[in-house]
Amino acid sequence: MTDDDRALPPALADLARTEIDYADGQGIDFEPYDAFESAGETTDWLRQWTGNPELDGDAYRVFGQDGTGGLAALRYGRPGRPLTEQPVVFMGSEGESGVVAGNLSDFLWMLADGCGPLEAVLYEDREPRPDATLTALAERHATTPGRSARAVIAEARAEFPTFTADIDALCR
After folding, report:
1. Residue 1: what pLDDT?
2. Which of 36, 73, 80, 112 has the fewest CB atoms within 10 Å, measured from its CB?
3. pLDDT tens track for 22-51
4. What does DSSP assign to residue 128?
5. Residue 105 C-alpha from the chain's centroid
6. Helix 104-112 and helix 132-141, axial crossing angle in degrees, nearest 10
């Protein structure tokens, strides 16, 4: 990894400037950051989350959180591929975890369908709640075809079926 990959991709920078409607609990519980967390903050978070002082956060680029402090991140899971082609993962404040999208473009389509990272992990069967503002953002930035949140989540989990077990194995 390089310091260059600490700059937000244009899609995430645009997302950081976009208001996400929580809709009194019926919308998306997600607050995008205007910058990735620093390497030190990411390492501290991963060590605290897992209880494993030997880990570093080099494989993660944290770019947002839910209202309880659960974090969304791009995770280097495809060696040699650009940051925007890496899977999006969520690690919740109560130990929940999961792959939520196969890449940044798919994550944008998931948001457009009214599903954030927390909802993808905890409430994957919830009804779609399309958001016009987030759909417009996805249309501007996505390089993958538009799909439902359920399809995005299912594809990501099929490609990375051991993510949660792998994270659990790191916990002490």
Report:
1. 45
2. 80
3. 988 889 999 999 999 999 999 999 999 999
4. P
5. 11
6. 160
Do 75 and 166 touch, CB atoms closer than 8 A?
no
Q: Which burial class, exposed, middle or buried, applies to 43 when counting CB atoms under 10 A from its CB (0-12, 13-18, 19+)?
A: middle
Length of the chain: 172
Contact yes or no for 171/52 (Cβ under 8 A): yes
Do 59 and 73 touch, CB atoms closer than 8 A? no
Contacts of 24 (CB under 8 A, 6+ apart): none
DSSP for 56-116 reads: --TTEEEEEE-TTS-EEEEE--STTS-GGGSPEEEE-TTS-EEEEESSHHHHHHHHHTT--
C-alpha dihedral (80, 172, 164, 94), degrees to nearest 10:
-120
Which value, in Å, is the radius of gyration of the alpha carbons in the chain? 15
Please name every residue paired with 65 in a beta bridge, in sequence order, or none if there are none.
31, 71
Q: Kindly tell me the burial class for residue 116, based on how many C-beta atoms sit within 10 Å of its own C-beta (0-12, 13-18, 19 or more).
A: buried
Q: What is the pTM of this model?
A: 0.95
Burial 11-37 (b: 16+ CB within 10 A, else e): bbebbeeeebeeeeeebbbbebbeebb
